[in-house]
TrEMBL record:
<protein>
    <recommendedName>
        <fullName>UvrABC system protein A</fullName>
    </recommendedName>
</protein>
<keyword id="KW-0227">DNA damage</keyword>
<feature type="compositionally biased region" description="Low complexity">
    <location>
        <begin position="1"/>
        <end position="25"/>
    </location>
</feature>
<feature type="region of interest" description="Disordered">
    <location>
        <begin position="1"/>
        <end position="27"/>
    </location>
</feature>
<dbReference type="InterPro" id="IPR027417">
    <property type="entry name" value="P-loop_NTPase"/>
</dbReference>
<feature type="domain" description="ABC transporter">
    <location>
        <begin position="25"/>
        <end position="484"/>
    </location>
</feature>
<dbReference type="GO" id="GO:0004518">
    <property type="term" value="F:nuclease activity"/>
</dbReference>
<dbReference type="GO" id="GO:0005524">
    <property type="term" value="F:ATP binding"/>
</dbReference>
<dbReference type="InterPro" id="IPR003439">
    <property type="entry name" value="ABC_transporter-like_ATP-bd"/>
</dbReference>
<feature type="domain" description="ABC transporter">
    <location>
        <begin position="492"/>
        <end position="798"/>
    </location>
</feature>
<comment type="similarity">
    <text>Belongs to the ABC transporter superfamily. UvrA family.</text>
</comment>
<keyword id="KW-0547">Nucleotide-binding</keyword>
<dbReference type="Pfam" id="PF00005">
    <property type="entry name" value="ABC_tran"/>
</dbReference>
<keyword id="KW-0963">Cytoplasm</keyword>
<keyword id="KW-0677">Repeat</keyword>
<dbReference type="GO" id="GO:0003677">
    <property type="term" value="F:DNA binding"/>
</dbReference>
<keyword id="KW-0238">DNA-binding</keyword>
Amino acid sequence: MSETSETTTHTSAGTGAAAQHPAAADSHEMIRVHGARENNLRDVTIEIPKRRLTVFTGVSGSGKSSLVFHTIAAESQRLINETYSSFVQGFMPTTARPEVDVLDGLTTAIIVDQQPMGADPRSTVGTATDANAMLRILFSRLGQPHIGSPNAFAFNVPTVRASGAITVERGTKKTVKQTFSRTGGMCTRCEGRGTVTDIDLTQLFDDSKAISQGAFTIPGWKSDSWWTVRTYAESGFLDPDKPIREFTDKEMHDFLHREPVKVKVEGVNLTYEGLLPKIRKSFLSKDREAMQPHIREFVDRAVTFTDCPECEGTRLSEAARSSRIGGTNIADACAMQISDLAAWVRDRDEPSVAPLLATLRRTLDSFVEIGLGYLSLDRPSGTLSGGEAQRVKMIRHLGSSLTDVTYVFDEPTIGLHPHDIQRMNNLLLRLRDKGNTVLVVEHKPETIAIADHVVDLGPGAGTAGGTVCFEGTVEGLRAGDTLTGRHLDDRATLKETVRTPTGKLPIRGATTHNLRDVDVDIPLGVLVVVTGVAGSGKSSLLHGSLVTTDQAAEAGVVAIDQGAIRGSRRSNPATYTGLLDPIRKAFAKANGVKPGLFSSNSEGACPHCNGTGVVYTDLAMMAGVATTCEECEGKRFHASVLEHRLGGRDISEVLAMPVTEAAAFFATGDARTPAATRVLDRLADVGLGYLGLGQPLTTLSGGERQRLKLATRMGEKGGVYLLDEPTTGLHLADVQQLLGLLDRLVDSGKSVIVTEHHQAVMAHADWIIDLGPGAGHDGGRVVFEGTPADLVADRSTLTGRHLADYVGG
């Protein structure tokens, strides 16, 4: 036999062997998790198929996020970070390895979560998705007149000019004169923010009084305060005994606008500056949500934000707005609805920038495809809802050529109308069909139905959860005896009778954002649901038009939105809800000591760990280590504080209680505290009875945080509750409990207005207002108002058709 034939025979034999014995690489078809114990997970062991769509479900707080985000995705990202050099890792966030015995078969994880995109005033939809960057290049190449590089169209880049002498040390020292200039697109008046602040002076002082007579009406500015009032009175620039309205022009300028300057007041060096810059620094530099209520009320009363008169709110300099392509400048392009901008880009035909146009077209078409065509690129990213922000993050992944990647989604259907959920499902399936592993945390039955594999965690929440109740197919889940399986086919029914309104809140001529001169009456004393596709104008109608009316103020509207709860690992449900105050006072009264002792953030804190319960050791570019404090054994309080008891329990034992146990503890006996019981009852009402009072807020899921905010705001005095998608993060079984809570609110004499897409809430409403018919400039009109039964019978709107299908009408 020749050498050639031997080689051929050998190769054929090898191929046959390979067919009988698959390559070792083909055996890694599963992501294997063994012994996961992160947060409330209890030694979870599970195998997840790769290149399939796996949906994780279970009640809120059952451990879904702990398994998917804090174990699988977190370890994948940690391993990728370790491939960089120690120098680079020093600049990256460091995370410890999750509490798990074995994690095998991981691939690169791309996380698309609901975290807010940040409310920086210069962050917009365009800057967050790179669409603005491509537009700037396009205008710098094609815009007429030509004004400069892409920086000349960037509202984040100021124009800079400099000149001077520099010393060059090369051989002999030589002084060289240099000039430098950079043309930016930032508006100089508003510094790229698009808005300017206008302060109402009448809210700052009473000009009929002198400073010495207490002219200031600013919260906290007492007539004898060192750092404020006395600085003005004894600065030497003003006459403290003269009424402010009688100040000379120079005195008024020094009073309102003077630059910071050192002055001596009774021998103490202090800084004097004009009232307006001082107000801007002390009040307007802080986040509004972080302010105390009385400070926030003052700022809302004294400060108005108006479009910048120089750039007309576009953020751009006059030069940037002067350059045009076919009569359109970059400000016009960014203000267009994205679906219209996509059509404008398609009309451009310029071979010199063909690759740029093609990429920009794909990006804009992705917006439309994902259901965000109604946005504009100049929309501030901080105004996006959680669902919109998540879909904006998806944009950069839709056209990606990467395969064999693990995509991790956190409830991607949040904020989506039933009409849009099918579109989202198609996108998830497309990512899977490209050869990727798709992991989705989800409650909606429409998305659970498309899963290749389902993992149901539970059976309960918190300490009652953390185990895998079921894994398999959707059919198996439906037939199984788990909470999710039993409720998967739940369908709410229409009410036989609806409540009669006791009044109305009129809205007239609403034109906020895309609203088209809307006139509508919102009935009071009943459960009202405002619905419509995403972008149809629901939030504009309620938060932009209703909340700002005088009638809303008179009715006492309490608006509860989806804004993120702010809080560190020191914050917990007891501190966030205000529950800790009556508890501390009860402990203090029972033991004859100060309330401050019973705060782990104040006098009672363990000195070794400063009240955190753990000691953190920073290991530079390696993950820091957290060990339980040896002094307090993780209880966070000084040993002497724990000697004080109330009803036989110390403060650390009380904070370790779940809500339901604490409610019983404070309801009777020596520990009876009605103020604490009221807060605890509200927490139980929203389904958080399992939550520990001292559990850090950083460990709560999105759904738990939403309901914690709801329970807190329910304590405010008001006659009308305005809720923004309260079913966010709620399991199918919890929706009925939420409906019961809404009913109790209405039956107690409150009015409840809900922005919602969930059909069960729509069916349960007394009155429905449907906006549409589409999104953006295709919406903004009231297309139906009436009872749910009338909407189902009418079937003339998208909502009506989907609700009819849901209730079987």
